[in-house]
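Give me the fold.
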Amino acid sequence: MYAFYHSPATLDEALRLKAELGDRARIIAGATDLLLEIERGVRKTPDGDAPGVIDLTRIPGLAEICEENGVIYLGPLVTHNQCVASPLLVEQAFPLARACWEVGAPQIRNRGTIAGNIITASPANDAVVPLTALGAGVTVRSLARGERTVALAAFVTGFRKVDLAPDEIVTGISFPAPAPNTSGTFIKLGLRRAQAISVLSVAVVVERAAAGPDAPIARAAIALGAVAPVIVRATSAESYLAGKVLTTEHIEFAATLAVEAATPIDDVRGSAEYRTGMVRTLVLRALRQLAAGEERAGWPARPVMLWGSSDGRWPVPSDAAGEPGHAVVNGAAVELPGGMTLLDSLRVAGYAGVKEGCAEGECGACTVFLDDMAVMACMVPAERAWGSRVTTVEGLGDAEHLHPVQRAFVQAGGVQCGYCTPGFIMSAAKLLEERPHPTDAEAAEALTGNFCRCTGYRKILDAVVAAGQGVTAQA
């Protein structure tokens, strides 16, 4: 798969490795895009070979979110779920928090990073859209030339292209803390509620000259995703809104102007004509939300994380012995082969309960706990588990001592064909750690990353809720 794996303990060590290896190595954090691209041959060295990887996730201090001197900073290991859970971002940069909530599913959000979302440089990537509207910059560093910061709009130079030299590493993302009387939102159009690549997305940020919905707009930013090779700003609409109040007339005309920025293509998710029409619709919706003060409608007071006691930061402190090639799986020291995904490694080691349903993070059948976080094993390098704790479905219970979720699945008839069941069980068990008595809505949110090909979700959801209630689920 990948040619080699390095796990530096410090940023200086990572910079030395990148300077030495250059294009022969790729930096990974979440790796939710990169592992798939390497396996599919999309990411290669200049010689056409598979690259090696330098994993930053054991370097401390790179997963922080903070504000300093009027600037909000995100470390290079900040994940989507961290953004969702951050009071600072929810309060001051809500479009970013909302966009991160729309990414994949809890297992993906626990691994995928904002920096990785930027470097992938797809116009359909969700987090890049609000960051563009917020005026973000990207800081990169090399051993030879030191540090530089470039505007996000300049850093992404084209479709899946960024201004990053072979010896450079992204070390942070930053943007000005929004001024008083600023509000914003993010709207994503996908083909389903979760685990969907954007057909189109819109982020809108407006700064009013004073408090109140009737105050004129001092500044507006409208960013559009998946309608051009890169994220674009609807500059004509932004200029038009300056000095105006968000009345029905002004909102409708601004939404019409926003269409000018779109140059979409036809693809499997939608036609160019459809996307063009939906630009106006989504900008209309966003501006109407802001006018009515309803941009936070539907935002969960306590989002489902599935990250246990980890607080979402990598590396997670581990009591596992750090012997190379070994992990603690279900409480026992186990040798795990490297050079492959954690899914494949666990199955080689005999853990057949970890299922391969899609091998690309779409179905959740391979969900395991890595240092207490729910992740999809098909999107984690096997070496990342060395020295860490891994829990598979075999570690939750056995035939004589079932986990409450396992028992509830049997009683409710939620097992069905059984193939996807281990992944559902793992996600549900982690949910019960966070919410001992989950609601139907919380159970549904926890299982957004798990796909049932039998399509029998009702009994599965009933089982999860019943397990939390400590009662027998009805068959």
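Confidence is low (pLDDT under 50) at residues 317-321.
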